[in-house]
Amino acid sequence: MTLHLKPISKAGIPEAIAKIDLYRSLNEPEEAESICRDILAVDAKHQLALRLLGLAITDQFCGDVSDRWGEAQEYFDQLSDPYERIYYMGLLHERRAKAQLRAGRLPHTLTPLFEEAMSCFGEAEKIRPPQNDDAILRWNRCVRLLQSHPEFQEARESMEFDAQDTSPV
Fold this sequence. Notes:
Blueprint: H1 13-25, H2 29-42, H3 47-59, H4 69-77, H5 82-102, H6 107-126, H7 134-148, H8 150-164
Helix pairs in contact: 1-2, 1-3, 2-3, 3-4, 3-5, 4-5, 5-6, 6-7
C-alpha cells in the first residue's frame, strides 16, 4: 500500500483553521500542526497558518534539546507584518524559557531568554496596532515571572553586584 498525503481544497481552509484552534485548545498541538501543514501545502504564504504552525510547535516545547524552536522561528520569520513577526518571536523566546524552567533548568541560565523575549515585546509595543496591548501583557507576565522566582532575583542581584564592583582593591 502506497502512503501519500492528500491535499485539502483552498475552500476548506477556513474550516481547517477552526479545527486548528480547537486542537490547540484541547492541548493537542500535534494535530494542529498537521492541519497547518495541510493548509501550507496548498497556500505556502498563508499568514494565519504560518503563525498557528509556529504556535503549535511552541505548544510542544518541553525544555529539552528536542524542542524545535529554530523551526518555529523560521515560520514566524515568514510573517509579513512587522509587528506580528517581532511579537511572535518574543513569544517564542518566552515559551522556550518557560519550558526550560519547568524542565528544571537553573533560572539564572534562563535570564537571557527572558530578556530577549522582553526586548522583542518592547519593540513590538512601539509598532503595535491601536488598542492592541498584547506585547505589554506579555512583557508584564515576564516581569512577574522573574519577580516571583527568588533564583531570578538572586542572579540579577549578583550581576548587579559584579557590575558595581569594578574598583581596584
